[in-house]
Design brief:
Blueprint: H1 2-20, E1 36-39, E2 42-45, H2 46-49, E3 50-56, E4 59-64, H3 70-79, E5 87-88, E6 93-96, H4 102-139, H5 145-178
Antiparallel strand pairs: 1-2, 3-4, 4-6, 5-6
Helix pairs in contact: 1-4, 1-5, 4-5
């Protein structure tokens, strides 16, 4: 049971990290977490090649450890799905976040719901696997029918708990995005 609960928690953690990369019109250094920069032939996370700071609410400043990395950082940002155009001042790469339009907010809200639904599906798949494992134990004579029913009930309660948590996360992130 603990193994399946851990898997459900991982699905929740994964959703949380995905939501961290969705920008809400404010500069958030976490949107750069999935971007990999070519660092001497090795794909490296942004934090590994530069310092990322937030000088203003709508601006991110990326200061590379090595000046020659500016071009690589710009290239990685342009290749990403962020939809931002980087500029540089010779020492740092600067990202300006435009205010979100109403259409973009609605589009992001749909994306948030879709990712939430995918997380729920993952949790339900884990529930199915757990239930199958319990049924196999019953067939093998390791547990009784009553024990199987008790375990399935516990599994369902955990599933409901994680599904409710996902719903809260979806609601919270949607509210954040839709707030002007």
């Amino acid at each position: 049971m603990a193994d399946y609960e851990e898997k459900m928690q991982k699905a929740l953690d994964n959703l949380e990290s995905e939501y961290g990369t969705i920008r809400a019109g404010r500069a958030n250094p976490h949107i750069l977490d999935k971007i990999k920069v070519d660092y001497y032939g090795t794909p490296t996370g942004m934090q590994g090649v530069a310092n990322v700071s937030v000088p203003e609410a709508q601006t991110l400043m990326i200061t590379p450890w090595e000046a020659k990395m500016i071009k690589e950082i710009e290239k990685a940002i342009m290749a990403s799905d962020l939809g931002l155009n980087p500029s540089n001042d010779g020492k740092s790469v600067i990202l300006h976040f435009p205010k979100l339009t109403e259409d973009r907010r609605k589009e992001l809200a749909k994306d948030i719901k879709k990712k939430g639904e995918a997380a729920k599906v993952a949790v339900r798949n884990i529930r199915r696997d757990a239930n199958e494992a319990v049924k196999k134990q019953e067939k093998a004579g390791e547990i009784s029918e009553d024990d199987r029913k008790d375990e399935e009930e516990k599994i369902q309660k955990k599933t409901d708990k994680f599904t409710a948590e996902i719903d809260k996360m979806v609601e919270s992130k949607t509210k954040e995005i839709m707030t002007v």
